[in-house]
Write a structure and sequence with these properties.
The protein has 5 helices and 21 strands. The protein is mostly beta strands.
Length: 365
């Protein structure tokens, strides 16, 4: 029998959310779907987000309904194909089980419930949090350069034997402050990114070209360092700039609401287009200094337009009909997977309409 009350579950999730965030943020309602199944057998290709979407109105609530705290769920790769996700309706939580064998005619197989957190056998076969293949290129390439990073970045001033373009194993001569770094990514500045509200330039798109490794730091009396090309994705040459290679990215994502209220706008859709759909990447005008971190989830809205009320009386001093703002319309969720100082990259999830530049991205309500 699938009918059950979600009131207790909602209250429990709200209390747990306060525990997860230290009580600083507003408690949110995380309810089961009215048509939530009793169980789901995990198959190859499943994601935690997709599995949770079978049970929850808001799939990113899955950490709460597994009854774990933030420390326990930092590594969510503990579910494997063949296991069974079981909805414990009495407690309002999801649990992990494994089939023991087929039951009789018309009888479901028995389930053995496993510990809430599995620590054995963690590996590449584990179910991922989100479809990570889409975001892989965005995890290790710079793509966005902020503030004075562009002006201060070291640059290629000459190539081996005057070559127009550099290839793998070629030498490159670089001038600039390396700040102790030895491995760098080569990029070429692209178009500036403007805040949709203030129109101020908040960053620059960077085209990733390849990687360089330091062979010989500049000797006394010289300003030029010698590098070797370790990989070349695109043609690179004199004038191209360097950025220190980022640390190994975190790929074990735990979805959660921001710990402080965030109100952002979509700055750009990756690829230079104006609209984006499911599993596409967009940048927003808020970052780590605005309270965002990896795994934060925002709701996406079409910004309500301002229209004239044709049935109202004239405005002040006879200046025409008054204008009113229409409400914002929710169109999907945004999963933040990489953050810079004031800009972040997010993966569009559960979208119902195309997302546009200028759309609103804000903390879940």
């Amino acid at each position: 029998m699938k009918n059950f009350s979600t009131v207790g579950a909602r209250l429990g999730f709200a209390a747990l959310f306060c525990t997860l965030t230290g009580g600083a943020a507003q408690a949110l309602e995380c309810a089961f779907r009215a048509d939530a199944p009793d169980q789901h057998t995990v198959v190859v290709g499943d994601t935690l987000w997709g599995i949770a979407g079978k049970f929850l109105d808001r799939p990113w609530c899955w950490p709460q309904v597994w009854g774990m705290n933030r420390e326990q769920i930092r590594d969510p790769h503990w579910i494997y194909p063949g296991q069974v996700v079981y909805l414990d309706r009495a407690s309002g939580q999801l649990r992990l089980g494994r089939r023991l064998g087929a039951g009789g005619a018309g009888e479901p197989a028995a389930l053995r419930l496993s510990p809430r957190v599995r620590t054995e056998g963690l590996g590449q076969d584990a179910v991922q949090s989100i479809p990570s293949g889409v975001i892989e290129p965005f995890l290790t390439q710079p793509l966005i350069v902020e503030g004075d990073e562009l002006a201060a970045a070291p640059r290629v001033v000459a190539t081996q034997e005057g070559h127009v373009f550099l290839g793998k194993d070629d030498k490159a001569y670089v001038r600039g402050d390396l700040k102790g770094g030895t491995s760098f990514q080569v990029f070429r500045p692209g178009k500036p990114l403007k805040d949709p509200v203030s129109q101020a330039v908040i960053g620059t798109e960077a085209f990733y070209l390849g990687t360089l490794k330091l062979r010989q730091e500049a000797r006394p009396g010289s300003e030029v360092h010698t590098f070797v090309v370790t990989s070349a994705k695109e043609e690179m040459g004199v004038g191209d700039q360097l950025m220190a290679a980022p640390p190994t990215p975190m790929r074990n994502y735990v979805p959660h609401p921001p710990e402080q209220k965030v109100a952002a706008r979509v700055v750009a859709v990756y690829g230079g287009v104006t609209h984006a759909g499911q599993n596409q990447v967009v940048s927003i005008n808020r970052g780590k200094l605005d309270g965002l971190d990896i795994g934060a989830v925002l709701q996406l809205y079409h910004a309500g337009k301002t229209v004239v009320d044709p049935g109202a009386s004239k405005g002040w001093h006879g200046m025409g009909k008054p204008q009113v703002k229409l409400p914002d319309e929710e169109v999907g969720s945004l999963f933040i997977f990489r953050v810079f100082k004031h800009i972040s990259y997010g993966l569009i999830m559960q979208v119902t309409e195309p997302v546009e530049v200028g759309d609103v991205a804000q903390s879940p309500e």
